[in-house]
């Protein structure tokens, strides 16, 4: 049964924004008192929170699919929809968040760190908000945009001051149990420790944390054993303690050869850019199990060689607690010196966030197609505007055309070589495909048309007043000519002439 997980892939879906409302206020003596459609609510975000009380990603291993609440729809009488409920996911301190391609998004090493990993969709505007002096009663509203949907990777890297490294069954779990209140599993067989254990140690006025890393073997940096899975838990440690077994009965093993193997694996493991390599950090050697007479003799034999190589050596016993106090205070001094060094370090450079006005809001990419070139429009604004458009409403389509024209999309299409009738796609993938007609881009605010229609999309436009007047005059002239012709025919048939009668 899995009890510790330090790497998972989450499938996230943020909340969708609610649609805006199309409504007109009606009262007893004001049948058309103006638009009063409310806005849709924003979709809920998915937020990661670094929680010191969480030590594993096990809950996300069993339930990797998470989603936030959707925003409510807008309503009449200027009532906006409710915002979707945010979803907060507690993760251990030291969690690294990466996207689906492995690019690091954030490193949550401080307790309480919050990161919006999946932003929710934007709520659509109602027709009351879209009303302007030239468009007093819009017959459309904007739709809500979908929230972010995709996969993220969570990778846990233990945050500890000291890491205990060594071969399996070297006594690391017994050591952390002897110097702290941690109670890891201890048994007489290799790879008893299957996940890192954390313990808090008090050395005088200094309190620090110790991590018990699962046993390393030769080739651990290449994926052998459990080393590669847990070597990343050593990355954040200030100091390393090499726990060497002086009472091992395995042939071909001794404290010096074990140390050489561990040093080679630590040197082969790459640390992230900007961090101190593992072998350049403070290192101590703990010769364990000296309560056994043969182990004490071996410790006395190898200690001069270790000290000659520059290591500070401690002979300890987790059974009799011999040498543990000296080791604890030595580690406390190293941690205290490192904390003073961090406190005296210069403050990090201040981050200045500048507006993105100088960046292009969209681009036009020409792609080859079977029936001619395809002009693809890419950009945050055009894609969002398309998502907000109700293509069943002609007035909403006209509003989209106005927004794209004001953004300069038509000019860019002309520069890219587009001609009337060319295929234009907005967004990646299939996107929204339409045949481009430049004549459709004109100011809709200057047009008068019934609510819910756009005269630019009408095949048979209504006649203007001058056209109706001209038609009326032509009809009257035709009637007058017809009357005169009939009168002439009548006089010719009867032979009467007003002049002869006189």
Please, could you describe this protein's structure?
It is an enzyme of class 3 (hydrolase). With 502 residues, the chain is an alpha/beta fold. It folds into 4 domains: 1-156, Distorted Sandwich (Spo0b-associated Gtp-binding Protein, Chain: A), CATH 2.70.210.12; 162-344, Rossmann fold (3-Layer(aba) Sandwich), CATH 3.40.50; 363-457, GTP-binding protein OBG, C-terminal domain (GMP Synthetase, Chain A, domain 3, 2-Layer Sandwich); 465-501. 27% of the residues lie in helices and 19% in strands. It is built from 12 helices and 18 strands. It has helices at residues 58-62, 127-130, 172-179, 227-230, 255-268, 293-308, 324-344, 380-387, 394-407, 409-415, 465-494, 498-501, and strands at 7-13, 46-50, 65-67, 87-91, 95-99, 104-108, 114-118, 149-156, 162-165, 197-203, 206-212, 239-245, 283-288, 312-315, 363-367, 374-378, 423-426, 432-435. The strands form 4 sheets. A 6-stranded mixed β-sheet has the order 10-11-9-12-13-14, with helices on both faces. A 5-stranded mixed β-sheet has the order 3-1-8-5-6, with no helix packed on it. A 4-stranded mixed β-sheet has the order 15-16-17-18. It starts with 6 loop residues before the first strand and ends with a helix.
